[in-house]
Amino acid sequence: MKIIKDAIAGTLESSDLQVKVSPQDNLEIVIHSNVMHQFGEKIADVVKETLNKLQVAEGLIIIEDKGALDCAIRARVETAVLRGAEVTELNWSLLK
Amino acid sequence: MKKLRRSMLFLPGANAAMLSTAFVYRPDSVMFDLEDAVSIREKDSARLLVYQTLQLPIYREFGIEVIVRINSLKTEFGLKDLEAAIWGGVDAVRLPKTDTPDEIYELEKHMERIEKEAGRPVGSTKIVAAIESAVGVINAVSIAQSSPRMIAIAIAAFDYLVDMQTQRGDGSELFYARCAVLHAARVAGIDAFDAVYSDVNDEAGFLKEVEFIKGLGYNGKSLINPRQILPLHNAYAPTQSEVDYSKQVVAAAEDGEKKGLGVISLNGKMIDNPIINNARRIISRYEASGVRQ
Protein backbone atom coordinates (compact mmCIF):
# COMPACT_ATOMS: atom_id res chain seq x y z
CA MET A 1 0.00 0.00 0.00
CA LYS A 2 1.46 3.39 -0.92
CA ILE A 3 0.80 6.53 1.08
CA ILE A 4 -0.04 9.19 -1.48
CA LYS A 5 -1.39 12.02 0.70
CA ASP A 6 -1.28 13.34 4.26
CA ALA A 7 -3.83 11.68 6.54
CA ILE A 8 -4.66 11.51 10.22
CA ALA A 9 -6.60 9.13 12.48
CA GLY A 10 -7.39 8.75 16.18
CA THR A 11 -7.58 11.24 19.03
CA LEU A 12 -5.41 12.63 21.82
CA GLU A 13 -7.75 11.30 24.49
CA SER A 14 -6.51 9.00 27.22
CA SER A 15 -6.19 5.33 26.10
CA ASP A 16 -6.13 6.43 22.46
CA LEU A 17 -3.50 7.73 20.05
CA GLN A 18 -3.25 9.96 17.02
CA VAL A 19 -1.49 8.75 13.91
CA LYS A 20 -0.35 11.08 11.10
CA VAL A 21 0.98 9.69 7.84
CA SER A 22 2.64 11.53 4.95
CA PRO A 23 4.22 10.46 1.65
CA GLN A 24 7.99 10.03 1.86
CA ASP A 25 10.61 8.03 -0.11
CA ASN A 26 11.77 5.97 2.88
CA LEU A 27 9.94 4.57 5.91
CA GLU A 28 10.32 6.68 9.05
CA ILE A 29 8.43 6.09 12.28
CA VAL A 30 8.37 8.73 15.02
CA ILE A 31 6.74 7.82 18.33
CA HIS A 32 5.82 10.14 21.21
CA SER A 33 4.12 8.51 24.18
CA ASN A 34 3.35 9.29 27.80
CA VAL A 35 4.44 5.70 28.54
CA MET A 36 7.49 5.79 26.25
CA HIS A 37 9.86 4.70 28.99
CA GLN A 38 7.99 1.45 29.80
CA PHE A 39 6.32 0.60 26.48
CA GLY A 40 8.12 2.52 23.70
CA GLU A 41 9.67 -0.59 22.21
CA LYS A 42 6.41 -2.52 22.34
CA ILE A 43 4.51 0.32 20.66
CA ALA A 44 7.13 0.44 17.89
CA ASP A 45 6.80 -3.33 17.38
CA VAL A 46 3.01 -3.09 17.05
CA VAL A 47 3.29 -0.17 14.59
CA LYS A 48 5.88 -2.00 12.45
CA GLU A 49 3.88 -5.22 12.45
CA THR A 50 0.75 -3.33 11.36
CA LEU A 51 2.60 -1.51 8.58
CA ASN A 52 4.06 -4.84 7.41
CA LYS A 53 0.61 -6.40 7.17
CA LEU A 54 -0.57 -3.46 5.09
CA GLN A 55 2.60 -3.75 2.95
CA VAL A 56 3.64 -0.16 3.66
CA ALA A 57 7.31 0.22 2.74
CA GLU A 58 7.62 3.99 2.70
CA GLY A 59 6.14 7.06 4.34
CA LEU A 60 6.47 9.22 7.43
CA ILE A 61 4.45 7.83 10.36
CA ILE A 62 4.09 10.06 13.43
CA ILE A 63 2.47 8.58 16.56
CA GLU A 64 1.18 10.60 19.54
CA ASP A 65 0.27 7.90 22.04
CA LYS A 66 -1.80 8.48 25.17
CA GLY A 67 -1.53 5.03 26.69
CA ALA A 68 -3.49 3.07 24.09
CA LEU A 69 -3.79 -0.71 24.08
CA ASP A 70 -2.36 -2.67 21.16
CA CYS A 71 -5.79 -3.03 19.56
CA ALA A 72 -6.21 0.76 19.39
CA ILE A 73 -2.67 1.24 18.05
CA ARG A 74 -3.31 -1.23 15.25
CA ALA A 75 -6.69 0.30 14.39
CA ARG A 76 -5.46 3.89 14.28
CA VAL A 77 -2.40 3.03 12.18
CA GLU A 78 -4.59 1.05 9.79
CA THR A 79 -7.09 3.90 9.48
CA ALA A 80 -4.41 6.55 8.85
CA VAL A 81 -2.66 4.39 6.24
CA LEU A 82 -5.89 3.50 4.42
CA ARG A 83 -6.89 7.16 4.38
CA GLY A 84 -3.41 8.18 3.18
CA ALA A 85 -3.44 5.52 0.48
CA GLU A 86 -7.02 6.42 -0.49
CA VAL A 87 -8.10 2.79 -0.10
CA THR A 88 -11.80 2.42 0.63
CA GLU A 89 -12.33 -1.30 -0.04
CA LEU A 90 -10.35 -3.33 2.49
CA ASN A 91 -9.14 -6.88 1.97
CA TRP A 92 -9.73 -8.12 5.52
CA SER A 93 -7.45 -11.10 5.12
CA LEU A 94 -4.54 -8.61 5.05
CA LEU A 95 -5.16 -7.79 8.71
CA LYS A 96 -5.25 -11.39 9.95
CA MET B 1 -28.20 -23.22 30.92
CA LYS B 2 -29.26 -20.44 28.58
CA LYS B 3 -27.14 -17.27 28.38
CA LEU B 4 -28.34 -14.48 30.68
CA ARG B 5 -29.18 -11.33 28.77
CA ARG B 6 -30.27 -8.80 31.38
CA SER B 7 -28.02 -5.94 30.28
CA MET B 8 -26.87 -4.94 26.80
CA LEU B 9 -24.47 -2.00 27.21
CA PHE B 10 -24.05 0.28 24.18
CA LEU B 11 -20.50 1.55 23.57
CA PRO B 12 -19.58 4.10 20.88
CA GLY B 13 -17.51 2.30 18.26
CA ALA B 14 -15.07 5.18 17.82
CA ASN B 15 -14.15 5.47 21.51
CA ALA B 16 -10.94 3.52 22.18
CA ALA B 17 -11.04 3.94 25.97
CA MET B 18 -14.61 2.73 26.37
CA LEU B 19 -14.26 -0.22 24.01
CA SER B 20 -11.17 -1.54 25.75
CA THR B 21 -12.31 -1.09 29.35
CA ALA B 22 -16.08 -1.73 29.52
CA PHE B 23 -15.58 -5.36 30.62
CA VAL B 24 -14.90 -4.07 34.15
CA TYR B 25 -18.61 -3.23 34.53
CA ARG B 26 -19.57 -6.87 33.81
CA PRO B 27 -22.63 -6.39 31.62
CA ASP B 28 -24.11 -9.59 30.21
CA SER B 29 -23.63 -8.24 26.66
CA VAL B 30 -21.79 -5.30 25.16
CA MET B 31 -22.91 -3.59 21.98
CA PHE B 32 -20.10 -1.98 19.98
CA ASP B 33 -22.04 0.66 18.07
CA LEU B 34 -21.11 1.58 14.51
CA GLU B 35 -24.44 3.25 13.78
CA ASP B 36 -25.88 6.27 15.59
CA ALA B 37 -22.97 6.79 18.01
CA VAL B 38 -20.45 7.28 15.19
CA SER B 39 -20.26 10.37 12.97
CA ILE B 40 -20.16 9.91 9.20
CA ARG B 41 -16.50 10.94 8.93
CA GLU B 42 -15.39 8.42 11.58
CA LYS B 43 -17.23 5.36 10.22
CA ASP B 44 -14.01 3.90 8.73
CA SER B 45 -12.03 4.55 11.90
CA ALA B 46 -14.67 3.05 14.21
CA ARG B 47 -15.03 -0.02 12.00
CA LEU B 48 -11.30 -0.80 12.32
CA LEU B 49 -11.27 -0.04 16.04
CA VAL B 50 -14.18 -2.43 16.58
CA TYR B 51 -12.50 -5.07 14.43
CA GLN B 52 -9.29 -4.84 16.48
CA THR B 53 -11.12 -4.69 19.83
CA LEU B 54 -12.94 -7.90 18.91
CA GLN B 55 -9.54 -9.61 19.05
CA LEU B 56 -9.22 -8.79 22.78
CA PRO B 57 -9.76 -12.03 24.73
CA ILE B 58 -10.89 -10.24 27.89
CA TYR B 59 -14.64 -10.05 27.08
CA ARG B 60 -14.77 -13.78 26.41
CA GLU B 61 -12.78 -14.51 29.56
CA PHE B 62 -15.46 -12.74 31.61
CA GLY B 63 -18.27 -14.48 29.70
CA ILE B 64 -19.49 -11.20 28.20
CA GLU B 65 -21.28 -11.59 24.89
CA VAL B 66 -20.01 -9.15 22.23
CA ILE B 67 -22.46 -7.75 19.70
CA VAL B 68 -21.86 -5.14 16.98
CA ARG B 69 -24.60 -2.79 15.84
CA ILE B 70 -23.96 -2.30 12.14
CA ASN B 71 -25.43 0.42 9.96
CA SER B 72 -28.43 -0.52 7.85
CA LEU B 73 -27.55 -2.60 4.79
CA LYS B 74 -29.36 0.09 2.79
CA THR B 75 -26.50 2.50 3.59
CA GLU B 76 -22.99 2.52 2.10
CA PHE B 77 -21.61 1.48 5.52
CA GLY B 78 -23.70 -1.56 6.44
CA LEU B 79 -21.93 -4.27 4.45
CA LYS B 80 -18.46 -2.98 5.39
CA ASP B 81 -19.50 -3.04 9.06
CA LEU B 82 -20.71 -6.60 8.69
CA GLU B 83 -17.37 -7.65 7.17
CA ALA B 84 -15.46 -6.05 10.07
CA ALA B 85 -17.69 -7.72 12.66
CA ILE B 86 -17.48 -11.22 11.20
CA TRP B 87 -13.77 -11.10 10.34
CA GLY B 88 -13.27 -9.85 13.90
CA GLY B 89 -15.10 -12.88 15.33
CA VAL B 90 -18.16 -11.17 16.82
CA ASP B 91 -20.79 -13.24 18.67
CA ALA B 92 -23.79 -11.48 17.13
CA VAL B 93 -24.76 -8.58 14.90
CA ARG B 94 -27.57 -6.17 15.72
CA LEU B 95 -29.48 -5.04 12.65
CA PRO B 96 -31.10 -1.64 13.24
CA LYS B 97 -34.49 -0.55 11.89
CA THR B 98 -35.64 -4.03 10.90
CA ASP B 99 -39.00 -3.74 9.19
CA THR B 100 -39.43 -7.08 7.42
CA PRO B 101 -38.05 -10.64 7.47
CA ASP B 102 -36.63 -10.01 3.97
CA GLU B 103 -34.00 -7.78 5.58
CA ILE B 104 -32.92 -10.68 7.78
CA TYR B 105 -32.76 -13.02 4.76
CA GLU B 106 -30.51 -10.50 3.00
CA LEU B 107 -28.33 -10.17 6.10
CA GLU B 108 -28.01 -13.97 6.35
CA LYS B 109 -26.96 -14.23 2.70
CA HIS B 110 -24.09 -11.79 3.28
CA MET B 111 -23.20 -13.45 6.60
CA GLU B 112 -22.84 -16.85 4.99
CA ARG B 113 -20.50 -15.51 2.30
CA ILE B 114 -18.34 -13.57 4.77
CA GLU B 115 -18.17 -16.46 7.25
CA LYS B 116 -16.83 -18.71 4.46
CA GLU B 117 -14.27 -16.10 3.41
CA ALA B 118 -13.18 -15.49 7.01
CA GLY B 119 -12.93 -19.20 7.81
CA ARG B 120 -15.67 -19.10 10.45
CA PRO B 121 -18.28 -21.86 10.71
CA VAL B 122 -21.36 -20.96 8.67
CA GLY B 123 -24.14 -20.02 11.06
CA SER B 124 -21.84 -19.14 13.94
CA THR B 125 -22.63 -15.40 13.82
CA LYS B 126 -25.94 -14.73 15.55
CA ILE B 127 -28.49 -11.96 14.94
CA VAL B 128 -30.33 -9.47 17.13
CA ALA B 129 -33.04 -7.58 15.24
CA ALA B 130 -34.04 -4.11 16.42
CA ILE B 131 -37.62 -3.05 15.85
CA GLU B 132 -37.93 0.71 15.41
CA SER B 133 -41.10 1.36 13.42
CA ALA B 134 -44.81 0.59 13.28
CA VAL B 135 -44.30 -1.78 10.35
CA GLY B 136 -41.51 -3.53 12.29
CA VAL B 137 -43.83 -4.03 15.27
CA ILE B 138 -46.56 -5.45 13.03
CA ASN B 139 -44.02 -7.83 11.42
CA ALA B 140 -42.29 -8.70 14.70
CA VAL B 141 -43.38 -12.36 14.76
CA SER B 142 -42.16 -13.09 11.23
CA ILE B 143 -38.92 -11.18 11.91
CA ALA B 144 -38.30 -13.11 15.14
CA GLN B 145 -38.92 -16.42 13.34
CA SER B 146 -36.95 -15.54 10.20
CA SER B 147 -33.63 -17.21 11.01
CA PRO B 148 -32.07 -19.88 13.22
CA ARG B 149 -29.33 -17.31 13.84
CA MET B 150 -31.78 -15.08 15.72
CA ILE B 151 -31.03 -14.92 19.45
CA ALA B 152 -33.00 -11.84 20.45
CA ILE B 153 -35.32 -9.09 19.30
CA ALA B 154 -35.11 -5.58 20.70
CA ILE B 155 -37.42 -2.62 20.77
CA ALA B 156 -35.83 0.78 20.11
CA ALA B 157 -38.11 3.53 21.30
CA PHE B 158 -36.89 6.78 19.76
CA ASP B 159 -37.46 6.07 16.06
CA TYR B 160 -40.60 4.07 16.82
CA LEU B 161 -42.18 6.98 18.69
CA VAL B 162 -41.26 9.40 15.91
CA ASP B 163 -42.91 7.00 13.46
CA MET B 164 -45.99 6.88 15.70
CA GLN B 165 -46.04 10.70 15.85
CA THR B 166 -45.70 10.78 19.63
CA GLN B 167 -43.01 11.01 22.29
CA ARG B 168 -41.82 9.39 25.53
CA GLY B 169 -44.41 9.75 28.31
CA ASP B 170 -45.67 7.49 31.08
CA GLY B 171 -44.99 4.32 29.11
CA SER B 172 -48.47 3.88 27.68
CA GLU B 173 -47.17 5.14 24.31
CA LEU B 174 -44.90 2.06 24.13
CA PHE B 175 -47.25 -0.48 25.67
CA TYR B 176 -48.54 -2.11 22.49
CA ALA B 177 -45.08 -2.26 20.89
CA ARG B 178 -43.50 -3.72 24.01
CA CYS B 179 -46.14 -6.43 24.23
CA ALA B 180 -45.98 -7.20 20.50
CA VAL B 181 -42.18 -7.51 20.48
CA LEU B 182 -42.18 -9.62 23.62
CA HIS B 183 -44.85 -11.96 22.21
CA ALA B 184 -42.84 -12.28 19.00
CA ALA B 185 -39.76 -13.26 21.00
CA ARG B 186 -41.69 -15.86 22.98
CA VAL B 187 -43.30 -17.31 19.84
CA ALA B 188 -39.82 -17.70 18.33
CA GLY B 189 -38.22 -18.94 21.56
CA ILE B 190 -35.67 -16.11 21.69
CA ASP B 191 -34.86 -13.28 24.12
CA ALA B 192 -36.43 -9.80 24.24
CA PHE B 193 -34.58 -6.57 25.06
CA ASP B 194 -36.37 -3.43 26.12
CA ALA B 195 -35.41 0.08 24.95
CA VAL B 196 -32.82 2.31 26.62
CA TYR B 197 -33.77 4.66 29.46
CA SER B 198 -31.88 7.75 28.43
CA ASP B 199 -32.02 9.89 31.62
CA VAL B 200 -29.08 8.32 33.48
CA ASN B 201 -29.51 10.67 36.44
CA ASP B 202 -33.07 9.49 37.12
CA GLU B 203 -32.42 6.18 38.89
CA ALA B 204 -35.92 6.05 40.40
CA GLY B 205 -37.52 6.43 36.97
CA PHE B 206 -35.13 3.84 35.54
CA LEU B 207 -35.94 1.31 38.26
CA LYS B 208 -39.67 1.88 37.86
CA GLU B 209 -39.34 1.11 34.16
CA VAL B 210 -37.16 -1.96 34.88
CA GLU B 211 -39.76 -3.35 37.28
CA PHE B 212 -42.41 -2.80 34.62
CA ILE B 213 -40.58 -4.52 31.75
CA LYS B 214 -39.42 -7.33 34.03
CA GLY B 215 -43.05 -7.82 35.03
CA LEU B 216 -44.05 -8.03 31.38
CA GLY B 217 -41.44 -10.77 30.91
CA TYR B 218 -38.54 -9.03 29.15
CA ASN B 219 -35.15 -10.75 29.52
CA GLY B 220 -33.36 -7.45 29.86
CA LYS B 221 -32.76 -3.94 28.66
CA SER B 222 -30.45 -2.00 26.37
CA LEU B 223 -28.33 0.46 28.39
CA ILE B 224 -26.37 3.57 27.52
CA ASN B 225 -24.46 4.05 30.77
CA PRO B 226 -22.52 1.57 32.94
CA ARG B 227 -24.11 3.14 36.03
CA GLN B 228 -27.36 1.43 35.07
CA ILE B 229 -25.90 -2.10 35.14
CA LEU B 230 -25.82 -2.82 38.88
CA PRO B 231 -29.33 -1.48 39.62
CA LEU B 232 -30.66 -3.45 36.67
CA HIS B 233 -28.96 -6.70 37.70
CA ASN B 234 -30.14 -6.19 41.26
CA ALA B 235 -33.72 -5.71 40.09
CA TYR B 236 -33.47 -8.99 38.18
CA ALA B 237 -31.87 -10.81 41.14
CA PRO B 238 -34.20 -13.20 43.02
CA THR B 239 -35.12 -12.91 46.68
CA GLN B 240 -33.61 -15.35 49.20
CA SER B 241 -36.90 -17.24 49.53
CA GLU B 242 -37.17 -17.59 45.73
CA VAL B 243 -33.63 -19.00 45.67
CA ASP B 244 -34.32 -21.42 48.53
CA TYR B 245 -37.51 -22.72 46.90
CA SER B 246 -35.83 -22.97 43.46
CA LYS B 247 -32.99 -25.04 44.91
CA GLN B 248 -35.53 -27.41 46.46
CA VAL B 249 -37.35 -27.70 43.12
CA VAL B 250 -34.16 -28.48 41.19
CA ALA B 251 -33.03 -30.99 43.84
CA ALA B 252 -36.41 -32.73 43.74
CA ALA B 253 -36.33 -32.79 39.93
CA GLU B 254 -32.82 -34.30 39.89
CA ASP B 255 -33.78 -36.85 42.50
CA GLY B 256 -36.92 -37.77 40.56
CA GLU B 257 -34.89 -38.16 37.36
CA LYS B 258 -32.41 -40.49 39.12
CA LYS B 259 -35.26 -42.62 40.42
CA GLY B 260 -37.00 -42.58 37.04
CA LEU B 261 -40.16 -41.05 38.45
CA GLY B 262 -42.74 -39.84 35.93
CA VAL B 263 -44.36 -37.39 38.33
CA ILE B 264 -42.28 -35.32 40.71
CA SER B 265 -43.67 -33.67 43.79
CA LEU B 266 -42.34 -31.27 46.41
CA ASN B 267 -44.11 -30.72 49.74
CA GLY B 268 -47.13 -32.56 48.37
CA LYS B 269 -47.40 -30.41 45.22
CA MET B 270 -46.64 -31.63 41.71
CA ILE B 271 -43.76 -29.85 39.95
CA ASP B 272 -43.62 -29.97 36.17
CA ASN B 273 -41.19 -28.76 33.51
CA PRO B 274 -42.21 -25.07 33.42
CA ILE B 275 -41.73 -24.89 37.22
CA ILE B 276 -38.35 -26.65 36.98
CA ASN B 277 -37.19 -24.43 34.11
CA ASN B 278 -38.26 -21.31 35.99
CA ALA B 279 -36.37 -22.53 39.08
CA ARG B 280 -33.23 -23.01 36.97
CA ARG B 281 -33.63 -19.49 35.54
CA ILE B 282 -33.87 -18.08 39.07
CA ILE B 283 -30.77 -19.98 40.18
CA SER B 284 -28.78 -18.73 37.18
CA ARG B 285 -29.73 -15.14 38.04
CA TYR B 286 -28.74 -15.81 41.66
CA GLU B 287 -25.39 -17.25 40.59
CA ALA B 288 -24.77 -14.19 38.40
CA SER B 289 -25.55 -11.49 40.94
CA GLY B 290 -26.64 -12.92 44.30
CA VAL B 291 -29.93 -12.16 46.05
CA ARG B 292 -31.82 -8.89 45.62
CA GLN B 293 -30.59 -6.11 47.93
Q: What's the structural blueprint in terms of helices and strands?
A:
The complex is a heterodimer of chains A (96) and B (293).
Chain A: E1 7-10, E2 17-22, E3 27-33, H1 36-53, E4 59-65, H2 70-84
Parallel strand pairs in A: 3-4
Antiparallel strand pairs in A: 1-2, 2-4
Chain B: E1 7-12, H1 16-21, E2 29-33, H2 43-53, H3 58-61, E3 65-69, H4 78-88, E4 92-95, H5 101-118, E5 126-131, H6 134-138, H7 140-144, E6 150-155, H8 157-163, H9 172-188, E7 191-194, H10 203-216, E8 220-223, H11 229-236, H12 240-259, E9 264-266, E10 269-271, H13 273-289
Parallel strand pairs in B: 1-2, 1-8, 2-3, 3-4, 4-5, 5-6, 6-7, 7-8
Antiparallel strand pairs in B: 9-10
Helix pairs in contact in B: 2-4, 4-5, 10-11, 12-13
List its traits.
heterodimer; A: 96 residues; Ribosomal Protein S5, domain 2; four-stranded mixed beta sheet; 2 helices; 4 strands; B: 293 residues; alpha/beta; TIM Barrel; 2 domains; two-stranded antiparallel sheet; globular
Question: Can you put this structure into words, describing what you see?
Answer:
The complex is a heterodimer of chains A (96) and B (293). Chain A is of the alpha+beta class and 96 residues long. Chain A has a 4-stranded mixed sheet, with helices on one face. Chain A has helices at residues 36-53, 70-84; strands at residues 7-10, 17-22, 27-33, 59-65. The model of chain A has no long low-confidence stretch (mean pLDDT 96). Helices cover 34% and strands 25% of the residues of chain A. Chain A is globular and about 35 Å long. Chain A starts with 6 loop residues before the first strand and ends in a 12-residue tail after the last helix. By secondary structure, chain B is an alpha/beta fold. Chain B has 2 domains: 5-234, TIM Barrel (Alpha-Beta Barrel); 238-287, no CATH class. Chain B is 49% helix and 16% strand. In chain B, the strands form 2 sheets. In chain B, strands 1-2-3-4-5-6-7-8 form an 8-stranded parallel beta barrel, surrounded by 4 helices. In chain B, strands 9-10 form a two-stranded antiparallel sheet. The longest helix of chain B has 20 residues, at 240-259. The mean pLDDT of chain B is 95. Chains A and B meet through α2 of A and α1, α2 and α4 of B.
